[in-house]
Amino acid sequence: MRQPEPEPQSFDRVLSSMCTEPHPAAREAAERFLATNPGDPATYDAVAELEARAVEGLAALADHPAPAEAAGYVTSGGTEANVQAVRSARNRHDGTDLNVVAPASAHFSFTKAAEVLGVELRTVPLDDDHRADPDAVAAAVDGATALVVGVAGSTEYGRVDPIPELAAIAEERGARLHVDAAWGGFVLPFTDRDWSFADAPVDTLTIDPHKFGQAPVPAGGLLAREDAALDALAVDTPYLESRSQATLTGTRSGAGVAGAVAAMDALWPDGYREAAERAADNADWLAAELAARGYDVVDPELPLVAADVPESEFAALRDAGWKVSRTGSGELRVVCMPHVTRSALRAFIDDLDGIRR
Description:
Elements: H1 24-32, H2 45-61, E1 71-73, H3 78-92, E2 99-103, H4 109-117, E3 120-124, H5 134-140, E4 145-151, H6 163-172, E5 176-180, E6 204-206, E7 222-224, H7 227-231, E8 235-236, E9 244-245, H8 254-267, H9 270-292, E10 297-298, E11 304-307, H10 311-319, E12 325-326, E13 332-335, H11 342-356
Parallel strand pairs: 2-3, 2-4, 4-5, 5-6
Antiparallel strand pairs: 1-7, 6-7, 8-9, 10-11, 11-13, 12-13
Helix pairs in contact: 1-8, 2-8, 3-4, 9-11
């Protein structure tokens, strides 16, 4: 018997995700380019031209010194971009038994990268405000360090590491610097934080249009300061019209590429600025409401709120249909994405008050 067609889940009560509703123009563009393959740009030249526009747009967002000449591509997401950054740094290093130094806040994709690529992952402690501790990073770096990782918008607390200090440490020891701005990259341009190519000698950078950029999933982004970073990833592809390929996944749908371009065309810069300001206001409001009820709240730096909510209350919120998650230390974690409205947060607080009675 034929089953009814399932409907996609509503975002109405999703408070834990770093993905969001795509912009309507991005959704439409993704459908048009669904069957094209930017993995073979010589054959699918129309989507290859769009990918060049996507990379230029992302590079402008991240203050690359020459956006029109920036190296990069549209990945499946932050995980692929981070794996590729590690792979590029490994391939460009002359040593053996290499290591990557990353803060404890680094995304779990670096654990995958280390396992797949055969490098040692050295995770170092954070400071008291959940940021990378430069002294700990410096102590962990040595002559076999291929890459130092900094996070610009951590997934648990929304923190921005001291990127210029990490860059100086990496440069002194002959290592590369990678900035993971997968989530924060579309918010940070509207802050005074130091995170971009203009703020430090960053070698590679992850920035995901399918997060705050409001592109459809999957649409991540890998950027590099110079072509050599991508050249180190290239392999020969003798049976394709394109004779080499630097990407990891090979065949890719053009949907992410086209959707990313459409989203950036529609929203950069004013739409993104308004979304970032609205999200920051929502995060501040929620943090204040939780603090007023006696919860210990981590002061939001970017639009992400973490609070020490008891397990029984957390479980009751989940039972009430709220999609919330916890940090590694067990705090409630709410990400104020563009789809998260003030009215939704008020309903969330109302439900929490009902649970507490």
